[in-house]
Sequence to fold (613 residues):
Amino acid sequence: MIAGARLAGSRRASGVAGVVLTGFCSALAAGLLIMLLGYVTVQGFGALNPAFITHLPHPVGIPDGGIANGIVGTIIIVGIAVLIAVPVGVLTGLYLAIYGRGIAAELVRFMAEVLSGVPSIAIGLFAYTVFVKPFAHFSAFSASFAFAVLMLPLMIRTSEEAIRGVPTAIREGALALGLPDYGGVLHVVLPAARPLIVTGVLLAIARVTGETAPLLFTAFGSQFWELNPANPMAVLALQIFTYAISPYDEWHRQAWGGALLLILAVLVLNIGARMALSGRTKKS
Amino acid sequence: MSIELDSPRTAARTGRLAPRGLTSRQAIADRTFRAALVGATLLFVAIIVGLFVELVRGSWESIVAFGPAFLWSSEWNPVTNHFGALPFIFGTVVSSAIAIVVAGVVGIAAAVFLAEFAPPRIARPISFFIELLAAVPSVVFGLWGLFVLAPFLGSIVDPFLQRYFGFLPIFQGTIYGIGLLAAGLLLALMIVPTVAAIARDLIVAVPNELREASMSLGATRWETATRVVLPAARAGIVGACVLALGRALGETIAVTMVIGNRPAISGSLFAPAYTLSSVIANEFTEATSSIYLSALLELGLILFLISIVVNGAARVMMWSMLKAQGRRP
Fold:
């Protein structure tokens, strides 16, 4: 009896210790990450002002420098990347969802999974060898290409899942009404799958917006207003990197401001994606 | 919810649902539509093949000049044009190893807590938060690592480790703050969300019958979690860790900012080092000779191949677990 009671006590103790320990690990992970976000917010908030968002970068020592060209450059580069990645990604997803049986389709799926793990810097090197080296000229377009390749795996996967999620009966109904194959897909299946595809696009945009490594030798950066995608262009994430490793306090301050903007943009995109998703599940 | 688009009876073989007797215009449109889908898929495959071919083509000069010795030579000298990858492979492997050990322990523990012990009121916000953090850009982690983590390590943690554990060679040598340890810990923080989020999903997916059976035999919740639930999800959790490891191996910007960027192999975790990705980031636009550029591209090729092996292994592990549970990946 006594031995049994002692055993139960030690088992209960180890159970409590286990819960405390795993709870501590959760708190540690979440706490460190809260500290990081809090620090960026506090430091970045001090750097934010109208001039910071509307002015071009100024040389060290001249006040009121900004990152306006980086914000515009980010939008242009990500925008072109979306124009490339969304059609290719959605069509490939459609192919996998509709005709995707057999070993070839499995291979395409596996390639997409593996591509999602390829380091962005390797994809940047690819963009360099294809679009920078032959022209001997850094360009915003080469950065867009790298971003598009980075977005593709996510686009393909979410489109395929979105389209598979549309009940067969809906598509068969369209065909029964006399719509041809493509018509059923374009007018019935795609609209039904749209919320999930939009979620995928938003998540893919969030993923590349903060990406820096491939920009180093594609977009390269610029001190000026540059709207032509054939030329080197300033990008927000790249400016943060350059300012952070510079020796100047003023530039460090601007790096924090840029980091806060970047985090806000990425969080808004992520929350938007979640809202698009939850709105859909509520309806269905 | 996920229903196969083609019901097996109608269109399993051809994928076509359309009835016979379409007008020729519709038949052409159908064919065009199908060609567009196949074309996009082929374009995607071409991009992946192109990625590999271009990296090999770009690094060919270096492959021919240095041969396989490139992998174990530790000389990196742009002046004499002698290049070897060993210091970078060393830095990449050690920093990622630190990261996966720390993030694996913390992430799996957090996942167990969130899935098995925490009430939904606590688990939901923490899970949501951890998932959002997987989206924080690496340049922001790098900024924080450079100005907060590295000074903290250099002034408090490293001296402490050296004072009490200085008999270990890994804690000897000059303290800079930045270095292998800083890079490893920053990477750990970056991949903890990946480990925790996937592991939690896998633990939640373990069938409840197992828990009920274990508890009906008298096991406590802790014993059930560690001896029944975790082993059931083991293959998938290992896969999640390998996936996170893949992310750590290729991470560039954050590591470049805190690892110190010196191509040296040292036994001390406090010493500055260099990784495959950070040397490419730092030196690519400054490479003056074509053999220099080619050597950097070969580092990129090595990184690409490592990532394919690691990610392929992770996917196979997770697929096999999900298949064993009888669900689609």
Observations:
- Chain A is about 75% helix and 0% strand.
- Chain A touches chain B through 99 residues (CB under 8 Å).
- The radius of gyration of chain A is 24 Å.
